[in-house]
Amino acid sequence: MSLRERMRYWFDNTMSRGTASLIGWLALVSVALVLVVAGLTVWLTDEPEGAGIGEVLWLSLMHAMTPSKVASDKGSTAFLAVMFAGSLAGIFIVSILVGLLSNGLKQKIDRLRRGRSMIAETGHTVVLGWSDQVFTIIGELVKAHASQRGSVIAVLADRDKLDMEEEIRERIGDTGRTRLVCRTGRPTEPGDLRLMNLDKARSIVVLSPDGEDPDAHVIKILLALAKRAGDHPPVVASLTSSRNLAAARLAGGDQVHLVDSDDTASRLIVQSSRQSGMSVVCMDLLNFDGGEIYLRSDAALTGQSYGDALHAYQTATVIGLRRAQGVVLNPPMDTVITAEDEVIVIAHDDSLIHLASGAAPLSEKDLAVAPAVAQEPERTLILNWNARAEHIVRYLDGYVAPGSVLEIAADHPKAGAGLDGLRNLTVNVKESDTTDRYALEALGVGLYQHVIVLSDDRFKPQHADTRTLMTLLQLRDMQTVAGERYSIVSEMHDENNRSLAEVTEADDIVISDTVIGLLLAQLAENRHLADVFGYLFDSRGSEIYPRPATSYVTKGVPVSFSTVIESARRRGETAIGYRLASGVNQPPHYGVVLNPSKSQPVTLGEDDSVIVLSER
């Protein structure tokens, strides 16, 4: 390579280094121009008279930087020619300088608009990735931080920063005191993760993205988080498949809590199919609008039994204990609370958790005694099929009595596959178009106690929800015409479609993505609640059951909620609220009232329910 080529290569490299390098070259050219003009002025002219070399240099600089000064020049032809040439060159230099500064400033603004600068927040919650759950999570965290000043939620996703901010504003609206910071980047790249100042973060939420094989993307993010240097704040991540839990645990380490989306949604669908209103109760517990779950240490309860502690708080409801051995909800009523135990309570705010000043009024004469009902075989119908359907069937098998029957009606190619080893269910599979009225009538739906309508995963979420709505409308009309009654529980993707589905008057609608988003938001605020919700959704131990109110108190008679709690306590159950039949189709709580005041009078009728934690 020749010297000329080497010099050209060196020059090209310096020119490609950005705005600063270009301005440096421009400064050298400007210095050279001033020196040449000053030299020509001294050599060719005697003007300005009596001026020293410093004055000539200054005059040359002013003509280069301010070309208009040539209009006021006077002197010889040679002097005017030199000044004109200097001013003409100065026009090009100034023009280039203005262009460089404008372009450099534009690049800096574009970089800021693209969200490529590092944030300097502390105590912030970081959300990595993008899916529809991001709106649920941010909305809930905004509610949780409503009373806090300076709270920040930072989002990193491979999307345009302005598009993210605009979409969040449209879906969530005003974020109150909580500031939202969006950055564009790939959460799997360590360099992009550095933008989020993770060392100072309060917690990290990793979302499972839409598209093929989302769990692989989540696991890669967990690997990137585990390998980074510095402090490691708690991480919460959701997976779509239980098969990937072991790999995710290995990738993320001890600081990561994993939410199995399929498993959680499947359990909730099964419990909702058997106990109408279960999903509404769970969503009320998971969101930050009403009753929330808190862990509380209270020395005044040490030595008391769990049954006595049920009446301890006026505006909070005791539901269980967190002990060294783990979480237990609705433990035996004679369980003694120790100094090391934490009481698990439902309250509308932690400031409302304080001991009652006196015993709430009880009405012994209005306590009802209901005989235990033996479990009998049931008939359940599942319409449609998807990837989590196998989980649903296996959980259902753990609930029903031996000899129960499950019919699966779907035109899905995998319907009924992988169901070997069931203990209590006999499964039959029929090919059927579940949106067709005649096909549904041919199934004899009135023969079943429970109907579960799943979302068909062969279609996009919105299309699948539309098909589900068609099926629900057909079922409701068939019930009306035939005068039949069976519970209908439906699975849907989009929370916005719930208002449309309310026309069908389905007993329960499970929005699986919303439930997972709510759970992630709760765990981002307090990861210790993972054990509580894990116990709540598990088929072992106590679970939430809406049960007939007449089994607990006299119907139509005003009683304090403390009376309801006492009636449930004598049955070994924990009452946490009630559901009024008159409000089952009225959003947002659909008749559910959790954690009412102990002294609050309530009148429960034949169709109302008491919500309890109980063994089956």
From TrEMBL:
<dbReference type="InterPro" id="IPR010420">
    <property type="entry name" value="CASTOR/POLLUX/SYM8_dom"/>
</dbReference>
<dbReference type="InterPro" id="IPR036721">
    <property type="entry name" value="RCK_C_sf"/>
</dbReference>
<comment type="similarity">
    <text>Belongs to the castor/pollux (TC 1.A.1.23) family.</text>
</comment>
<dbReference type="InterPro" id="IPR006037">
    <property type="entry name" value="RCK_C"/>
</dbReference>
<keyword id="KW-0407">Ion channel</keyword>
<feature type="transmembrane region" description="Helical">
    <location>
        <begin position="21"/>
        <end position="44"/>
    </location>
</feature>
<dbReference type="GO" id="GO:0034220">
    <property type="term" value="P:monoatomic ion transmembrane transport"/>
</dbReference>
<keyword id="KW-1133">Transmembrane helix</keyword>
<feature type="domain" description="RCK C-terminal">
    <location>
        <begin position="278"/>
        <end position="361"/>
    </location>
</feature>
<keyword id="KW-0813">Transport</keyword>
<dbReference type="InterPro" id="IPR003148">
    <property type="entry name" value="RCK_N"/>
</dbReference>
<dbReference type="InterPro" id="IPR036291">
    <property type="entry name" value="NAD(P)-bd_dom_sf"/>
</dbReference>
<keyword id="KW-0472">Membrane</keyword>
<feature type="transmembrane region" description="Helical">
    <location>
        <begin position="78"/>
        <end position="101"/>
    </location>
</feature>
<dbReference type="InterPro" id="IPR044849">
    <property type="entry name" value="CASTOR/POLLUX/SYM8-like"/>
</dbReference>
<keyword id="KW-0406">Ion transport</keyword>
<protein>
    <submittedName>
        <fullName>Voltage-gated potassium channel Kch</fullName>
    </submittedName>
</protein>
<dbReference type="Pfam" id="PF06241">
    <property type="entry name" value="Castor_Poll_mid"/>
</dbReference>
<keyword id="KW-0812">Transmembrane</keyword>
<feature type="domain" description="RCK N-terminal">
    <location>
        <begin position="122"/>
        <end position="258"/>
    </location>
</feature>
